[in-house]
Amino acid sequence: MAQRPYIVGNWKMHGTRAMLSEARAIDRAAQRHMKVEVAIAPPFTLIHPVHREAEQIGVGAQDCHHEAEGAFTGDISAAMIADAGAKFVILGHSERREAHGETDALVRAKAETALAAGLRIILCCGESAKTRDSGKAVAFVRKQLKASLPEPDQAFEDASERITVAYEPIWAIGSGNAATIADIVEMHAAIRALLIDLYGEEQGSEVRILYGGSVKPENASEILTAPEVGGALVGGASLTADSFMGIALAAAVETEDS
Ligand code: PEP
User: Fold this and answer.
1) How far is the CA of 167 from the centre of ligand 1 (A)?
2) 138 Cα: distance to centroid of ligand 1 (angstroms)
């Protein structure tokens, strides 16, 4: 891994204030592994409490609205999550694409609004089991990502700092079965080529590409050392400091070895 590895926990709809003790434990452990960038995206309600206590880890959100403000009952804007302490937002997660009908165009609009609000983004992509079985996974993900990422002319000069892509095959999420290393390598290479096409060599080659889908301490090392894997987006295994930091430790060991 040439870049500083980025290990991000997506807490999804888990966590009340009782979970703050896990966030504190993650933060303390992250202070021992400064070569790894560790972050969590708790539910909206915990962004500010985690931000207030965290000394080392980044704090982000799991979604935001595509408009800057307005009459959108129950929604949360990019500026609001930034005000609460979020530095980044996860966008286009397959659970939002599926359960909330989020299209590529909507995800792109959210990405552009979030960047304009000063946030970094983690843009998710990934194919279903049916698409993988049909042999069209790479073509699908390329198309999905191309239509979801901010337009090149909307992307800022520091795109590589502010945009992260997460490849998350839908069938691997929460299943206990991560994609094979060969499949991860093939997809990450295709994503890298697309990023260079879109943003040019200088920016496109530096955007971090995370893998997500059943990453756990036991498989983290193998996944994190695969070519073009810049870190991991972690769901279930990010809910306890022990398992999440087991993954961060695997990243730290690889960084020290390289
Ligand atoms: C996710 O949903 O972003 C995810 C990667 O989940 P899990 O690690 O539980 O597969």
Assistant:
1) 11
2) 20
Q: Which of 37, 93, 206, 228 is catalytic?
A: 93
pLDDT at 153 over 80: no
6-86+103-257: CATH, from 3.40.50.2300, 3.90.180.10, 3.40.50.1370, 3.20.20.70:
3.20.20.70
- Report the 10 Å Cβ neighbour count for 220: 25
Q: Which two tokens stand for residue 24?
A: 């504190």
pTM over 0.70: yes
Please give the Cα distance from 152 to 80 (Å, whole number). Answer: 26
pLDDT at 33: 93
The span from the CA of 146 to the CA of 233, in Å, is 20
pLDDT averaged over every residue in the chain: 95
Residue 258: pLDDT over 60? no
Q: Whose CA is nearest to atom 4 of ligand 1?
A: 235
Ligand 1 center to 250 CA (angstroms) = 18
From the number of C-beta atoms within 10 Å of its C-beta (0-12, 13-18, 19+), residue 22 rates as buried
Active site residue 48: no
Sign of CA dihedral 233, 238, 243, 244: positive
Which residue is closest in CA terms to ligand 1's atom 2? 235
Size of the chain, expressed as the number of residues it contains? 258
Q: What's the confidence (pLDDT) of residue 176?
A: 95
Whether the predicted pLDDT of 50 surpasses 80: yes
Q: Give residue-wise pLDDT tens across range 190-223.
A: 999 999 999 999 999 999 999 999 999 999 999 9
pLDDT value of position 32: 94
Which residues form the pocket of ligand 1, taking CB atoms under 6 Å from any ligand atom? Answer: 10, 168, 173-174, 212-215, 233-237
